[in-house]
């Protein structure tokens, strides 16, 4: 089963790079020029996502924040990030960033051994900060353009390249493969649920601000996503906020 997974992963990587090689979109183009030919469909998907979020995900995230001490929330976020380290290291290597791969490898060893399995980010305290990497970024480094902007059901903003990156990262995740091989898939689903909860909790204020202050929430969310992805691709600190938008709250 493991050999089959590796073989299929290799084919997925090659086919993704081949199919995406023609996706147009310069990394330096203005965010106002995002290629969005599916805007009507994307807006409908966003409306559905918003309904699900406001009815279910956001209330759970708010309850989590209100009832869980910040130290425990930080510990969970650190732990989940540590579990994702093999994906980060693999993408650093694929990008030819040996220094980044070395730092990521040092982080996982330090945090796993001295940080109680990654709950405490000892490496960051020691001057080795986390650097987020995924296969979407790797494709961008290889010269693959964004492709069309997409709003994925439940998953939110993306584009053709980053969606392919999500699929490859998920398929290549060593922990997912291991849990699948020992018939413990439910643990993978639990991990995914915790990642969604932790991420949504971290974005509560940012999403609230975009909803409240954006004349066009769809456009503001799209712009924020594009800016953050470009910052990550260029190894810059992600903005984690939307563009400068006039406050229309009292309009």
Write up this protein.
This protein has 12 helices and 2 strands. By secondary structure, the protein is mainly alpha-helical. A two-stranded antiparallel sheet has the order 1-2. Helix 2 packs across helix 10, helix 4 packs antiparallel against helix 5 and helix 7 packs across helix 8. It starts with a helix and ends in an 18-residue tail after the last helix. The relative contact order is 0.14.
List the helices and strands and how they pair.
Blueprint: H1 2-20, H2 39-67, H3 70-83, H4 85-94, H5 98-114, H6 122-125, H7 135-141, E1 149-152, E2 156-159, H8 160-172, H9 174-181, H10 185-202, H11 204-213, H12 217-233
Antiparallel strand pairs: 1-2
Helix pairs in contact: 1-8, 2-10, 3-10, 4-5, 7-8, 9-10
- Supply Rg: 19 Å
Biggest sheet architecture: 2 strands, antiparallel
In what order do the strands lie side by side in the largest sheet? 1-2
Number of helical segments with 4 or more residues: 12
Let me know the average pLDDT: 86
In which range does the helix fraction lie? 55-70%
In the predicted model, the low-confidence regions spanning at least 5 consecutive residues are: 1-29, 241-251
Distance between the termini: 60 Å
Globally, the shape reads: globular
Got a strand count? 2
Give the assembly state of these chains. single chain
**What pattern of helices and strands is seen along the backbone?**
HHHHHHHEEHHHHH
SS content category: mainly alpha
What percentage of amino acids are in beta strands? under 5%
């Amino acid at each position: 089963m493991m050999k089959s997974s590796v073989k299929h992963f290799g084919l997925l990587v090659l086919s993704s790079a081949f199919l995406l090689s023609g996706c147009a979109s310069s990394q330096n183009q203005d965010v106002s020029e995002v290629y969005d030919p599916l805007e009507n469909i994307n807006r409908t998907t966003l409306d559905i996502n918003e309904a699900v979020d406001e009815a279910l995900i956001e209330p759970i995230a708010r309850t989590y924040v209100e009832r869980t001490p910040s130290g425990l929330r930080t510990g969970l976020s650190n732990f989940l990030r540590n579990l994702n380290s093999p994906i980060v290291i693999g993408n650093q290597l694929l990008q030819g960033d040996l220094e980044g791969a070395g730092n990521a490898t040092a982080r996982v060893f330090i945090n796993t051994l001295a940080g109680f399995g990654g709950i405490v980010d000892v490496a960051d305290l020691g001057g080795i900060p986390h650097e987020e990497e995924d296969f979407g970024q790797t494709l961008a480094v290889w010269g693959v353009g964004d492709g069309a902007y997409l709003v994925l059901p439940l998953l939110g903003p993306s584009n053709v390249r980053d969606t392919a990156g999500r699929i490859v990262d998920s398929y290549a995740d060593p922990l997912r493969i291991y849990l699948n091989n020992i018939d413990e898939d439910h643990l993978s689903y639990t991990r995914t649920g915790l990642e969604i909860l932790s991420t949504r909790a971290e974005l509560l204020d940012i999403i609230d601000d975009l909803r409240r202050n954006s004349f066009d929430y769809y456009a503001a969310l799209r712009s924020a996503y594009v800016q953050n992805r470009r910052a990550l691709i260029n190894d810059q600190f992600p903005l984690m906020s939307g563009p400068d938008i006039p406050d229309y709250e009292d309009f």
